[in-house]
Amino acid sequence: MPFSLYLHIPYCLVKCPYCDFNAYGVRTWPEKDYVQALCAELRFYADREPWQGESVATIYFGGGTPSLFAPASIAQVLEAVSGCFTVLPSAEITLEADPASVTRETLAGFRAVGVNRLSFGVQSFQAKLLKTLGRLHTAEDGPRVLAWAREAGFTNLTMDLIFGVPGQTLALLADDLHQTCAAAPEHVSLYNLTYEEGTPFFRRKQQGKLRPIEEEEEIEMFSCIRETLQVQGYQHYEISNFARAGFASRHNANYWQGGDYLGLGAGAHSYARVPEWGRRWSNERKPQAYMRKAVTEGSALDCQEQLTYAQARGEFLFLRLRQLEGFVLATFSERFGVPLVEAFPHVSDFVVEGLLREDGGRLALTSKGLLMADSIFASFV
Questions:
Q1: What's the pTM value of the predicted model, to 2 decimals?
Q2: What is the band of 90 on the pLDDT scale with cuts at 50, 70, 90?
Q3: CA-based, 20 to 30 A from 95: which of 4, 74, 130, 252?
Q4: What CATH superfamily classification does 3-255 receive?
Q5: Under 8 Å between Cβ of 61 and 5
Q6: Domain 310-378: which topology?
Q7: Closest CA to 268 of 255, 288, 279, 284
């Protein structure tokens, strides 16, 4: 089966205070050396199972801020991918972009080297909220960079927004949604702000310097998001994601379907369904240590884990239930040799409580269940 390829570029101009990803705010970055390390990793895995001889269905440059790298550097990596694997003609090739780090010329350059999908971290169109979030771009930059992307020939654009930001009102959210729909991206991701331990936002919350919005307000905002985007023709296909027909993220769908993915770069994670119940591993997190190890050894492996039967069952459920269409119940028993209700009897309680629905042999979250998804998922692990 074709697999997905994730390439992590960990550098940012400034690391956002809410971000807990493996990213580093820097003034300069070792672009040439980092590309060399990615290419060394590619060559290492191309000769090993389960990747040897397989095809790549999606490629995703994530970060960090991949758009800091020059189009020529992205081209060098893509050429290395094509030299190591068969890239499907229909491959979805995504690059994350910060509005503060691109120009009309660089966007045209990314399109020219083969990137066919851009993911813009707009987060908000409100100057006050962008300042709170520590973003470098202005409220005007969001629409501007999307227009530049269209000029460059991109026909598949996605935009990230954050809701539940301190100081955000329902009216401000409604304006963000209005401007989003006016920009007409093919895909929209909306994430509620979280306060992850170890981030500046977490510390400010603990110190009382940041006051999270009330849960009732978040629920109201989520309802507003769903109603507004669905009226505008976006299908709500995953908890945080909306897309026009035919533009759902194929790369992320592979994660949610439990497909194989190879992660390259500092701190990148990988997963393979074999042997047994699956194996996952991750790379060295620190960029310098990653580059040194990748170039000298080929692999920059830091840690790995063989999944247990119990882990595999739980992850099967919470990954597939993230998608609003749910999954076919028979696929669970086919994979694990036991009916779902026998493995997790409390699923029946969730159905009775209106949190899950069973229809036509499929199991999926209900609208009520969407609001309690984290609690539902936690019950499976």
A1: 0.96
A2: very high
A3: 130
A4: Aldolase class I (3.20.20.70)
A5: no
A6: Arc Repressor Mutant, subunit A (1.10.10)
A7: 284
